[in-house]
Amino acid sequence: MYYIPASLVKQKNASFPVIIFVPGYNGDGEGNLPQSFYSFADKNNFGILTPAFVSKDCELYDQTSYHYPKTWSGAALIKMLEKAKKNGLNYSKLYMVGFSAGAQFVSKFSLLYPEMVDSCAILSSGGRVQPETKNNVKYFIGIVFSDNKFRLENAQIFSNACKKLGIYYKYKEYYMGHETSEQEWQDVLNFFITNRS
Predict the structure, then answer these.
(1) Which of 143, 158, 127, 114 is nearest to 25 (CA)?
(2) Which one, of 57, 45, 94, 44, lies nearest residue 74 by Cα?
(3) How far apart are CA 5 and CA 38, in angstroms?
(4) Which residues pair with residue 91 across a beta bridge?
């Protein structure tokens, strides 16, 4: 699903920032997209694209699932963007946000294609990912303090790598279950608009 604010529909051939929203494991993008993202997009002239990636459990172990954008899902997202572009969703830079399995995807995508991404919000990632070279992506790393130890370590490893490489990031802990809250979404959207290039 993609969304273009009415104010942008009238601007033929204009390019604008686009939020890529990837939910948790095998989640439906449109069904999980918080309502606040629509009002944010309308107010700040952002488009939205939400894929609905699906994988089998066995694909997680041989690294052929969508969590690994190098295999197929990264190219699939780029094709989605190109298809949406023909209908008016002409992106300038991507602002990516993913939760859990979606966070694993967006973090890996941002490291594969840093030239496409302005900012990336990684929320409770289930994958151990970290940058190995400096890039210009700005990262929001959200983690639930009471989440399992592995996810907490993932967030800290990514944050520490950003610090070591001089990559801009913000790390924030929340107190709830393995879930998100409206406060976390607002923090992500504020991060996007405050640090917008």
Answers:
(1) 127
(2) 94
(3) 8
(4) 16
121-144 pLDDT, tens digit each: 999 887 889 999 999 999 999 988
**Residue indicated by tokens 């939760």:** 99
Structure tokens at 116: 């496409």
pTM here?
A: 0.93
Tokens of 4: 């273009």
Provide the angle, in degrees to the nearest 10, between the axes of the packed helices 73-85 and 101-112.
80
Show the tokens assigned to 90.
């002409």
Rounded-to-10 torsion of CA 20, 22, 23, 27: 120
Q: pLDDT tens, 46-79?
A: 999 999 888 776 566 677 788 778 888 899 999 9
**Rounded distance between C-alpha atoms, residue 142 and residue 5, angstroms:** 27
Over the chain, what HEC string results? CEECCHHHHCCCCCCEEEEEEECCCCCCHHHHCCHHHHHHHHHHCCEEECCCCCCCHHHHHCCCCCCCCCCCHHHHHHHHHHHHHCCCCCEEEEEEEEECHHHHHHHHHHHHCHHHEEEEEEECCCCCCCCCCCCCCEEEEEEECCCCHHHHHHHHHHHHHHHHHCCCEEEEEECCCCCCCHHHHHHHHHHHHHCCC
| Closest residue by Cα to residue 8 from 60, 179, 19 | 19
| Residue 3 near residue 84, CB atoms below 8 Å | no
